[in-house]
Amino acid sequence: MTRLKRSIIIAAVAANGVIGKDNDIPWRGKLEGDLPRFKKLTEGHIVIMGRRTWDSIPFKYRPLPNRTNIVVTSSPLNTKLTLPPQARTATSVADAINISMLYDGDIFFIGGSGIYIEALKYANYLFLSELDESFEGDTYFPEFDRELFSKIERGHSYNKTPEFPHAYTYNLYRRKSHD
């Protein structure tokens, strides 16, 4: 019997909605526990990302290990995108979801903004690390109707420390139609 895949948006979002600046994460490496959680949650599953998100991952970590990597790009033949054999391309989020059906695991949408906008149509879960402060940026998490989701878990709150200078709370939301 085939189990339906869970569709999950996973993101770290500043208080003002910023998720990136200059094709990078403004707080990269500065959120206690966030990267290990991302790795633990996504390993063994499918990650769907846009080409700019792919480009922002340091080369030595591409493709993200122990995951099926699907990169959405509108023109894979006309970009500088060169993927290793362990990664696939798709022309849209819907195409990426169709490709993901060939693989085991849940679907994690990992960015960027355009992917999140499209993924909100499909996602039944949001795993959000919600920062307590605002950041300058040029890429934002999309506005979404919070009435469509229930907060099912308020995760651990992380306070500022010298090593991790940004406070945040990890929250899990589920689409209400799945309650």
Brief characterization of the structure:
The chain is of the alpha/beta class and 179 residues long.
Q: What's the layout of helices and strands?
A:
Elements: E1 7-13, E2 18-20, H1 34-42, E3 46-50, H2 51-56, E4 68-72, E5 87-90, H3 93-100, E6 107-109, H4 113-119, E7 125-131, E8 139-140, E9 149-158, E10 168-175
Parallel strand pairs: 1-6, 1-7, 3-4, 3-6, 4-5
Antiparallel strand pairs: 2-8, 7-10, 9-10
Can you put this structure into words, describing what you see?
It is a single chain. The chain has 179 residues and is of the alpha/beta class. The protein has one domain (7-21, 43-178): Dihydrofolate Reductase, subunit A, CATH 3.40.430. Helix content is 17%, strand content 30%. It has four helices and ten strands. The chain has helices at residues 34-42, 51-56, 93-100, 113-119, and strands at 7-13, 18-20, 46-50, 68-72, 87-90, 107-109, 125-131, 139-140, 149-158, 168-175. The strands form two sheets. An eight-stranded mixed sheet has the order 5-4-3-6-1-7-10-9, sandwiched between helices. Helix 2 (51-56) links the parallel strand 3 and strand 4 (68-72). The longest helix is centred in the N-terminal third of the chain and has 9 residues, at 34-42. The chain is globular. The chain starts with 6 loop residues before the first strand and ends with a strand.
Tell me about the biggest sheet? 8 strands, mixed
User: How many domains make up the 3D coordinates?
Assistant: 1
Strand content: 25-35%
Give the CATH class: Alpha Beta
